[in-house]
Amino acid sequence: MRAAVGVDPDHLVVVVGHGRQAVAEHLDALSGDIDRKITVAVQEEQRGTGHAVGCALAALPEVETGTTVVTYGDVPLLDGDTLAQLLAEHHSAGNAVTVLTAVVPEPHGYGRIVRDADGQVVSIVEQKDATPEQAAITEINSGIYVFDTAVLRDGLSRLTTDNAQGEQYLTDVLAIARGDGRPVGALICADEWLVEGVNDRVQLARLGAEFNRRLVENWMRAGVTMIDPSSVWLDADVALARDVLIEPNVQLRAGTAVYEGAVIGPDTTLSNCVVGPGAKVIRTHGTDSEIGERASVGPFAYLRPGAKLGTAGKIGTFVEVKNSEIGDGSKVPHLTYVGDATIGEQSNIGAASVFVNYDGVRKHRTVIGSHARTGSDTMFIAPVTVGDGAYTAAGSVITRDVPPGALAVARAQQRNVEGWVTRRREGTPAAEAATLALAAQQDGDETPDPKEQ
Question: What domains can be seen in the chain, in order of their start residue?
Answer without folding.
Answer: 2-195 (3.90.550.10), 214-408 (2.160.10.10)
